[in-house]
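Lab notebook, design round three. We kept the backbone fixed and only want residue identities now. Task for the bench partner: fill in a sequence for the structure below.
Input structure tokens:
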């Protein structure tokens, strides 16, 4: 049965791979916003970096395009997060395009009619009731599926060992995190990569089956565990098996799926910050800075509803 379901996912991927192209949102206007920042709170506005080559990216091949994505509720960041985001701009050299997506751009992408991810519309209410980190996970998979490029969490930062040339020749690039999992806080990938397709499908299925929408823990629902499941599906395509998270199955290497799609994983949990600092901000600092930016730390955002996603999605039927 698992093999049959896996083949079904692969066939669905081939059939819908480019189904959204006609409705594709314009990346260059998607992230545009005119909101002003409250200087009295010490907030600074982060801007996009749009270069002539941004419109000439590799849309039809398997290269990782030179696009960089980050998101937050707004472009108005505390000095701490502004400086971390600026470090990415500085490290990515002059030929990378930098896009910062605020809440408006975030919601436009999530509310798009995704023919290849039909379950998204069904579970959207559940994601809205969950901690904001759940919706953020879905958003990062969608932005990378549609446009490709690099995604990095707001509290991450490039290490001195990181140079964008490390991505050359790869189709998908991850580092090993401190829990022996693939990095969800840093993903570099070509558009329409199967691992993103599989990961998002696993995340949506996990949301659908949560027993309490407000208490869904993002790490297990839509985060690293969904990414591991996506990697497992990617490897199952060629008959290879990947162990469970408790078995610490993620190792450095280049892994192949069907039709010569590849996934590259580098690093080790013993040297987790070799390329990218996983977390340059303590939880206490996050809480303080998020509050200034009108946001909540994800653990403080958990609010049990005593309602399952299935119950919520079937109300009124």
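Proposed sequence:
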């Amino acid at each position: 049965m698992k093999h049959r379901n896996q083949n079904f996912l692969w066939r669905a991927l081939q059939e819908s791979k480019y189904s959204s192209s006609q409705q594709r949102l314009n990346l260059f206007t998607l992230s545009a916003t005119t909101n002003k920042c409250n200087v009295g709170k010490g907030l600074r506005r982060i801007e996009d970096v749009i270069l002539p080559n941004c419109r000439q990216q590799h849309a039809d091949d398997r290269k990782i395009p030179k696009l960089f994505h980050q998101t937050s509720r707004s472009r108005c960041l505390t000095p701490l997060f502004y400086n971390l985001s600026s470090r990415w701009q500085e490290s990515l050299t002059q030929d990378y395009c930098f896009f910062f997506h605020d809440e408006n751009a975030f919601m436009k992408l999530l509310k798009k009619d995704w023919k290849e991810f039909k379950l998204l519309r069904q579970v959207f209410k559940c994601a809205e009731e969950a901690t904001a980190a759940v919706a953020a996970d879905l958003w990062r998979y969608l932005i990378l599926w549609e446009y490709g490029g690099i995604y990095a969490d707001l509290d991450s930062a490039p290490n001195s060992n990181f140079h964008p040339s490390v991505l050359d020749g790869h189709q998908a690039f991850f580092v090993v995190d401190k829990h022996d999992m693939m990095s969800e806080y840093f993903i570099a990938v070509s558009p329409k990569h199967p691992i993103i397709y599989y990961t998002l499908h696993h995340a949506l299925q996990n949301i659908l089956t949560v027993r309490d929408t407000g208490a869904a823990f993002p790490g297990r629902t839509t985060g690293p565990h969904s990414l591991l499941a996506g990697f497992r599906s990617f490897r199952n395509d060629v008959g290879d098996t990947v162990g469970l998270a408790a078995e610490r199955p993620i190792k450095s290497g280049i892994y192949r799926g069907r039709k010569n799609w590849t996934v590259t994983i580098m690093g080790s949990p013993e040297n987790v910050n070799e390329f990218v600092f996983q977390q340059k901000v303590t939880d206490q600092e996050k809480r303080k800075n998020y509050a200034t930016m009108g946001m909540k730390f994800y653990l403080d955002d958990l609010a049990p509803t005593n309602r399952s996603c299935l119950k919520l999605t079937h109300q009124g039927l």
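Keep this in mind before ordering anything: Residues 18-22 have pLDDT under 50 and may be disordered.
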